[in-house]
Each structure stands twice: as C-alpha cells, then as structure tokens.
C-alpha cells in the first residue's frame, strides 16, 4: 500500500478497527480525511501515520 490516499477499508485494516470506530475518529477530528467526491472519503497516508505516532507518544 504505497498510495497517498487510503480508502476507509484500507485505513481500517492498518489500524485494525471497525468502520464505526474509524468514522468516529474522523468525526472527532483525531484522524483527518478528505472527500474526493460527494460520497468518496479518503484518509491521507501522512494523517494516518501522524495519528499512529500520537498513539505511540501517548503510550510512552
């Protein structure tokens, strides 16, 4: 997965969370996303990596 924009299922697989959890992260602003079209949401890879980095920092 070298794409810059991940689909919701791709991001779910990386984080190993449910669709509901992923959309909660997006709604809360913890995980930024973009709308490519009216119903096509994508998660930038750098946003996902940043979220994971913050989780690791908080756990330390």
TrEMBL record:
Q: Which Pfam families match?
A: HTH_17 (PF12728)
Highest taxon, organism lineage: Bacteria
InterPro entries on file:
HTH_17, SinI_DNA-bd
GO terms (molecular function) for this protein are:
DNA binding
Identify the residues that the record assigns to the Helix-turn-helix domain, covering every copy. Answer: 5-54
**Any idea what this protein is called?**
Helix-turn-helix domain-containing protein
């Amino acid at each position: 997965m070298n794409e810059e924009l991940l689909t919701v299922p791709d991001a779910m697989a990386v984080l190993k969370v449910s669709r509901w959890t992923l959309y909660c992260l997006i709604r809360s602003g913890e995980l930024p996303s973009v709308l490519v079209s009216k119903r096509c949401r994508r998660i930038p890879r750098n946003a996902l990596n940043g979220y994971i980095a913050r989780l690791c920092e908080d756990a330390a």
